[in-house]
Each structure stands twice: as C-alpha cells, then as structure tokens.
C-alpha cells in the first residue's frame, strides 16, 4: 500500500500558516507525506504584488520546516488544477481554509472530484 498523503491548499496570505500547521498535525497523526499547493489565477504573477510574494515565501519556509514541498501553479481552473494535482500526488486528505465571513464551495467541488479523499475545511478568525 502506498503511503498516505496530506495536501494543504493555501492562498497568498501569511494567515494560511495555520493551514500548514493543521496539515502537518494530521500528517504526523497518520504517518503521511505532506505537501502544500498554491494555485494562482493565470496572469496574476506575484511580481506585481510584493505582499503576496512575501507571504508565499513565508509559507514556503513554514512548509519546509515541516518537511513539505510547496508548489505554486498558475491556472484559470483552480478546482480542476487542485484536483489534478491531488490525484497525481495521491492525496488522501486535503486541508483548505475559508473565512467565517466568506462562502466558498471549493471544498464541495473537491469532494465531488476526489471521491474517497477527505476534504477538511479549517475556518479562519477573520
């Protein structure tokens, strides 16, 4: 049997650190591999947004501290890209975040695209 895999989905915000911590906790509990992904809309390069670049660098450092690789992909199809990456990585557990004030149905779309995978939504304090 292949090793379990936890995939953490982050945005370009430093506050996503808590998602990586949650993913690392889950990976440790089940002795799983851990990876982190950020999917940015095509054409929205971080070079034009120093805060996002700084945040992604910070998140990369956090991911590295937990032994995780972090991948950044540019795509117009966020959910499709996340699900393709999760399938390729063999992710069994996906961690993503949502603001308590926001509505985000990416979790439901990922659940539909990845039957058998657990999708864990972690709420932020915003």
Plain-language structure description:
- There is one protein chain.
- The protein is an alpha/beta fold and 126 residues long.
- It has a single domain (5-124), classed as Rossmann fold.
- Helices cover 40% and strands 26% of the residues.
- It is built from 4 helices and 5 strands, in the order βαβαβαβαβ.
- It has helices at 17-30, 50-65, 78-89, 106-113, and strands at residues 5-9, 33-40, 69-74, 93-99, 118-124.
- It has a 5-stranded parallel β-sheet, with helices on both faces.
- α3 crosses α4.
- The longest helix has 16 residues, at 50-65.
- The chain is globular and about 40 Å long.
- The mean pLDDT is 88.
Features:
single chain; 126 residues; alpha/beta; Rossmann fold; 5-stranded parallel sheet; 40% helix; 26% strand
The succession of helices and strands, N to C, reads EHEHEHEHE
Shape: globular
Please estimate the helix content. Answer: 25-40%
Query: β content, as a range?
Result: 25-35%
Total strands: 5
Give the helix tally: 4
Question: Could you give the topology of this structure?
Answer:
Blueprint lengths: L4 E5 L7 H14 L2 E8 L9 H16 L3 E6 L3 H12 L3 E7 L6 H8 L4 E7 L2
Helix pairs in contact: 3-4
Brief digest:
40% of the residues lie in helices and 26% in strands. It has 126 residues and is of the alpha/beta class.
């Amino acid at each position: 049997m292949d090793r379990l895999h936890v995939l953490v989905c982050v945005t370009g915000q430093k506050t996503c650190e808590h998602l990586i911590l949650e993913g690392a906790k889950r990976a440790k509990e089940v002795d799983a591999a851990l990876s982190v992904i950020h999917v940015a809309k095509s054409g929205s390069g971080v070079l034009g947004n120093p805060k996002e670049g700084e945040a992604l660098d910070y998140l990369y450092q956090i991911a590295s501290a937990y032994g995780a690789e972090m991948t950044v992909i540019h795509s117009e199809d966020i959910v499709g890209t996340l699900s393709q990456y999760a399938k390729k990585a063999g992710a069994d557990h996906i961690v993503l975040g949502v603001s308590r004030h926001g509505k985000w149905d990416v979790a439901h779309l990922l659940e539909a695209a990845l039957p058998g995978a657990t999708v864990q939504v972690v709420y932020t304090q915003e």
